[in-house]
Amino acid sequence: MKPRLWTRNYTLLIAATTLGAIGGTAGGFALSFLVFDETGSTLAAALIVAIQLIPYFVLPLLLAPLMDRLPRKPFLVGGDLLNGLLYALMGLYLLRFRFSYAGYLAYSLLLACLGSFDELAYSSIYPKLIPEGLEQKGYAVSTTLYPLLRVLMTPLAAVLMDTLGVAWMLIVQGGLSILAALTESGIRLSEQHRLAEGQRFSLRMWRQDTAEAIRYLRNEPGLMNIFSYSAVTNGVSNGYYPVLVAFFRTAPGFSAGMYSFFTVAEFLGRALGGAVQYRVTIPDRRKYGFVFFVQQFYGLMDMCLLWLPYPAMLVNRGLCGFLGANSATLREAAVQRYIPESLRARVNAFSEMMIMASISVLSLVIGALGEIMDYRLCLTLCGAATALACWLTIWRRRKPIRRIYEPATPDAGCANAQKAD
Q1: pLDDT per residue over 90-107, tens digit each?
Q2: How far apart are CA 48 and CA 152, in angstroms?
Q3: Alpha-carbon Rg for the chain in angstroms
Q4: pTM assigned to the model
Q5: Torsion-angle region of 7 (φ positive above 0: left; ψ -120 to 50: alpha; else: beta)
Q6: Residue 21 near residue 146, CB atoms below 8 Å
Q7: Rounded Cα–Cα distance for residues 347 and 360 (Å)
Q8: CATH class assigned to 8-186+205-420
Q9: How large is the greatest C-alpha to C-alpha distance in the chain, in angstroms?
């Protein structure tokens, strides 16, 4: 019988993801403008981003070995539940007290601690809920979902920010996260328990499990270069986010409302790109070439983005979103299929740590550049950096990377056989 993607477990996870994404989109939009409006500084906004990412660098390293030995569902449900409670408390605080930059820094650090292991649990449990052979369709759904919700929620968030205010938006976000946790609790999943009866997880076991993941990655140059490129691109894109906010807030003829539609164009493109991936299967022999083209195209579009008239900016972001969604779907499906189940949390943790370290550093660097440099020139340098990173990683290590994207090739078959041994 042909496998079916929309099983009970997969449907519940997507429903929970939808609830969390709706709240996160609205709350994140409001907070981004709240910080800049209160401080008037791109560096201060960038510092918020950098502080939030510290736990994402530290906690996955500590938790991933344990998560590979215990069921991941409790991490997922518990993380969303506590996350929702904290966002609701933040909203209640803002209803009665004035915004405090120092207090917001501390609270963001706490929220990030909860979000880090929740995100790791999600990325590790998601592949287990996709039937074998339907990985591309499964990741196409998640790739489409976030952009589609951005398209729907971002303009609404701009209106709600002026009508309800940031505090009530955060309270709603907290309620949706709690509802997402309740939805996830209905998932029925048989997970491997890799601790013997009566055995306790120890520091020695943590060291052994961490060393095992490091040995695996040392023998996987393809994965390491994919992770390295993702770290650079995520660092750059998150780093120039406050620069874009500042540009639309300060440049003559631009506004927060225009920025909302600017982001809608990109996420509408991503939604269409994900829908295409759900319906169309790209042949294995073409996957690497397509992904490399998209990565180069994205860097070029970033370089010229703010030099274009506003209508051309919308087209620019729409094209990037469409192609980027296709590329991201292929990458996630290929990488998660390639990583052994028993190592998935630890390997994903190393990838996440690389990304978060890059975001922390590059957010501060780009935020500082935004203080002394024209915003348009700053974004041009960012695009050039990502294009160069693509040549130094994805192209330079194209042979092992091609094996990950194109497992049907003879070389890939040999490599996977060696990995199984």
Answers
A1: 888 888 887 777 777 777
A2: 26
A3: 21
A4: 0.73
A5: beta
A6: yes
A7: 20
A8: mainly alpha
A9: 67
pLDDT tens by residue, 16-63: 988 888 877 777 777 666 666 666 666 676 677 667 767 777 777 788
Distance CA 188, CA 175 (A): 23
Sign of CA dihedral 295, 298, 299, 300: positive
Q: Where are the alpha helices (DSSP H) in 305-343?
A: 310-338
Measured between alpha carbons, how far is residue 205 from residues 21, 99, 211, 216, 302 in Å? 36, 44, 10, 17, 45
**Interatomic CA distance for residues 297 and 295, integer angstroms:** 5
User: What's the token pair of residue 227?
Assistant: 């992770």
Inter-residue contact 8 to 188 (CB < 8 Å) = yes
Closest residue by Cα to residue 76 from 157, 153, 17:
17
Length of the chain: 421
Q: Which amino acid is at 141?
A: V
Q: Alpha-carbon torsion 314, 317, 322, 325, what sign? A: negative
